[in-house]
Design goal:
This protein has 14 helices and five strands. By secondary structure, the chain is mainly alpha-helical. The protein folds into two domains: 217 residues, 3-Layer(aba) Sandwich (Rossmann fold); 91 residues, Tyrosyl-Transfer RNA Synthetase (Orthogonal Bundle), CATH 1.10.240.10. β4, α8 and β5 form a beta-alpha-beta unit. α4 packs across α7, α4 crosses α14 and α7 packs across α8. The relative contact order is 0.15. The protein binds adenosine-5'-diphosphate and tryptophan.
């Protein structure tokens, strides 16, 4: 029953201020936000309420939020074109989240693999917030009636859940209140893997620092990490078929292609049959070329927290204007408003 025709196109995405952004966050998500802001009204959110679903040191949270805002801006998001803001400053996210908690079903949330991964064996002792995390994410999207959501592949299941919530809400209340949010997942860099194990995604929670390249790494660190990246003893294969069983090699080629905006097969053709040392040598230059201007800009921006906080505050006011209207409509539809 829902149709997106009746809604203006609007982009929303969020990144958690959980300490340090890595190449996976950049290539899988942030880099893809930049061209979208030219075409659509866009909102990019620092999702601190998601971050606190696991313990965050209060004294460090503000600087972590500023670091995400700095990464957005250093990567090319223009706060004059897009709304760059902070989730906790727009309380409507939480007000809608409660209503959506009453729409979403336990069975749906029980299927979420990210919760299972993050909770692990500790299921009885993690926060309730970690369980209902995807509902707050649906709320982030729905409070702006966002139609497009650029994310990495690991967030696909959460997006599916948001779509289920939209559909049930619109059905239950017999009104097309929300558009169906469409994921935008860049195939080329949907999932950047660990440099130590090509079957695990690059993640800030990996114990090995050599598994990930951080946006704040120096040229020297980038170079060391790529040199040490796991590879096979044999040279690169001669066919894409053989490459299928070589996750580490595939990952290095994926990073290369994504940084250069090149086709994966073209990059593979260039290096097929060659030694890994040759690929790594070029990859070091390419990654440094891509990341060093972003890192330098991030360092400049994070030295002025007042400036970043001002951007987040002003963005939050703009976001709130949209969110208040949507929440009012929702309260009307659900029957929560007094008649005025
Ligand atoms: P993390 O997953 O590292 O905790 P976030 O949850 O804040 O970081 O994710 C921010 C964005 O980065 C999301 O869109 C997510 O899909 C994307 N992302 C995270 N890790 C990767 C990865 N290894 N490859 C591609 N995209 C990723
Ligand atoms: N859950 C997302 C992640 O871990 C972050 C996020 C929160 C998000 N709210 C969002 C992403 C809304 C897109 C849209 O990466």
């Amino acid at each position: 029953m829902s149709s997106n025709k009746d809604f203006p196109r609007r982009v929303l995405s969020g990144v958690q201020p959980t300490g340090g952004l890595h190449l996976g966050n950049y290539l899988g998500a942030i880099k893809n936000f930049v061209p979208l802001q030219e075409k659509f009204q866009s909102l990019f959110c620092v999702v601190d309420l998601h971050a606190i679903t696991v313990w965050q040191e209060p004294k460090e949270l503000m600087s972590k939020k500023c670091e995400v805002a700095a990464a957005f801006i250093a990567s090319g998001i223009d706060p004059k074109k897009s709304i760059v803001f902070n989730q906790s400053q727009v309380a409507e996210h939480l007000q809608l989240a409660w209503i959506l908690n009453c729409v979403a079903r336990m069975g749906w949330l029980n299927r979420m693999t990210q919760f299972k991964d993050k909770a692990g064996k500790n299921k009885e002792n993690v926060s309730v917030g970690l369980f209902t995390y995807p509902v707050l994410m649906a709320s982030d999207i729905m409070i702006y009636k966002a139609t497009h959501v650029p994310v990495g592949e690991d967030q696909k299941q959460h997006l599916e859940l948001a779509r289920d919530i939209v559909q049930k809400f619109n059905n239950d209340f017999k009104k097309n209140v929300f558009p169906m949010p469409e994921p935008i997942i860049m195939k080329s860099a949907a999932r950047i893997m660990s440099l130590r194990d090509g079957t695990k995604k690059m993640s800030k929670s990996d114990i090995s620092e050599y598994s990930r390249i951080m946006l704040t790494d120096s040229d020297d660190e980038i170079s060391k990490k790529i040199k040490k990246a796991k590879t096979d003893a044999m040279p690169l294969p001669n066919s894409l078929k053989e490459l299928e069983n070589m996750p580490e090699a595939t990952n290095l080629l994926t990073i290369y292609a994504a940084c250069e905006d090149e086709n994966f097969e073209l990059v593979f053709n260039r290096y097929q049959g060659k030694n890994f040392s040759e690929l790594k040598k070029d990859l070091i230059d390419i990654v440094i070329n891509k990341l060093s201007p972003i890192r330098d800009e991030m360092i400049k921006l994070t030295s002025d927290e007042d400036y970043l906080q001002k951007i987040l505050q002003s963005g939050s006011l703009d976001a709130k204007k949209i969110a208040t209207e949507v929440l009012k409509e929702v309260y009307d539809v659900v029957g929560l408003n007094f008649s005025s």
